Amino acid sequence: MGQKIHPTGFRLGTIEPWRSRWYATKKDFGRLLLQDKKIRDHVQKEFGSAGIPRIEIERTSDAVNVIIYTARPGVLVGRKGIRVEELKKELQKMTGSTCHLTLHEVKRPELESKLVAEVVAEALEKRMAFRRATKRAMQTTLQAGAKGVKIELNGRLGGAEMARQSKEREGRVPLSTLQAHVDYGTAQAKTSYGVIGVKVWIYKGLIERGTFIDFKAQLGGPPQRGGDRPRFNRDRGPRPGSAPSAPKEARHGTDA
What we know:
Layout: H1 7-11, E1 20-21, H2 26-46, E2 54-59, E3 63-70, H3 73-77, H4 82-95, E4 98-105, H5 113-125, H6 130-143, E5 148-155, E6 164-171, E7 180-191, E8 194-206, H7 248-252
Parallel strand pairs: 1-2, 3-4
Antiparallel strand pairs: 2-3, 5-6, 5-8, 7-8
């Protein structure tokens, strides 16, 4: 039984902050939620080549602030900022209110799961062998400072008649640990044989309990907070109602 859950949604409210931060009444909630999706889809469609792993949206009573994380800000800004101004006008027309744009440069794209997935998908579209593309992306990510990475491919790999699945993993990827900062991203490779789905999990370390991931502080490199902390309460003693364990000398034997 494969009980699966989205790694980011699983950690929301624990260590992962929300990507949309605003409050609305029941009457306006659905409209604003759909508006957020249209904003993200529009930015990804128009500036997909800019390497955008994350888009955050904040709202006030009279304005919308769109925070874009990009690996290639020059593509997004354009010559003399022309493309940014055009994007701002398009978003203002879409939302019907004042729109502010904030850009953050991602200096370590090898540690962003969505960007890694896009690199693998691009390699598959160029007819590179899927195992070679997967191995190369994993090595680059681990060299950048990740503690573990897992990549999964689904589709007609290598032009096979029947769709199949390929999984590769190196290092640790603790999906069930809520304090583990696991970045998850997907992409699609549109090949001549059909669409191949790419999923990437990147484990970056442990986050202290009660604190949220600070994406702005992590733009320059891998997270330094936490790490592989020792596991506590490993020796919890005998369970209630169980027979007491034998002393150490009795278990291993003694020299008469």
